[in-house]
Amino acid sequence: MDPFVYTALPTRVVFGTGRVAELGAEVERLGAKRVLLLSTPGRAQMVAALSAGLPIAGVFDRAVMHTPREAVEQARAMAKDVRADCCVALGGGSTIGFGKAIALESGLPVLAVPTTYSGSEMTTIWGISEGGAKKTGRDPKVLPRTVIYDPVLTLELPPAVSAASGMNAIAHCVEALYAHDGNPIVSLMAEDGIRALAAALPKILANGKDIAARSEALYGAWLAGMTIATTSVALHHKLCHVLGGLGLPHAETHSIVLPHAVRYNHDAAPEAMARLRRALGGVADAPAALYDLEKKLGLPLRLADLGLAEADLERAAKTAAEAPYPNPRKVEYAGVLALLREAYAGRRPARKVFAE
Ligand code: NAD
User: Fold this and answer.
1) Which atom of ligand 1 lies nearest, measured to the CA of 122?
2) Is residue 286 within 8 Å of 190, Cβ to Cβ?
3) 337-353, pLDDT tens digit by residue?
């Protein structure tokens, strides 16, 4: 076995149907007496119902996507004004991002109750956007102390959003399988995360209220969060960051690029591919199977459909190749451009398209 480093993160996880009823007990366990409750405007009603009985000192229900600095400062000011000693973030990655931004400055403990598959609750990664750019970093202070995963809270997550967000979580697991700083423990989590999500997402699409499938998907999302928490991302995420900078939507871009990025890396990461084939149900070809899964989920398959101009492909390939993330296969302009052209056209990944 090759030498490796594994870092365990100390979050307490409470998982299962109905476990959100233990929110009060978990707040008490943290020793908190003055809770600042965080949500997006859309989740405010759900949050109010779930927080009955908590020692609430204040409610900030204006969390928005990408944690803009101005809104973050308002939330931080409220935490100070109400003398909060804990933040309870109930919602998706956006809401949890506000809890992290408050913790970054104040060190307040965060209790997260995720309602999407973003995985943010398991990471030390924070992000704050300002002037059109997002500054990110890693800091142990922002890692939630406690996470309650209750699949009941995800029953209303629209199936199309669930599918895209779930494929995004699969992408985290896939890149963890071949990360330059990966290890056998993270690979175990990544493989089971992919298995759980790939099994659950088609069932959720058929019936969004399928609690067993919701439970399995949330478990997969938890594993996906743990995989990105301690390993580095590679070419796939680099391309998605570059395309995101051109204004493409986050989860859908991940979903479209993933099968093609996996095809690019296929021959350079044989152990990761063996795990991926197994996780997808014993398939013969992992990139094609990912594509087929996305097709079954009704997700967009062509970058062209997200509004990307064909002329931008060369620019994106150049940016990705000029400052690449560590990747199992050397990142070269011509190969990356070929990959992007396949994703642009939405073709099912064929064998050997990007062979040297
Ligand atoms: P989100 O939190 O923005 O939620 C999307 C929308 O869905 C919101 O309007 C929300 O109110 C609604 N919603 C959430 N849960 C719902 C539910 N159960 N039922 C119905 N509606 C629901 O989306 P997201 O994808 O969870 O998070 C995206 C953000 O998280 C991005 O800013 C991304 O950068 C960040 N993120 C951070 C990390 C990290 O480690 N720091 C990891 C992943 C994502």
Assistant:
1) 40
2) no
3) 999 999 999 999 987 54
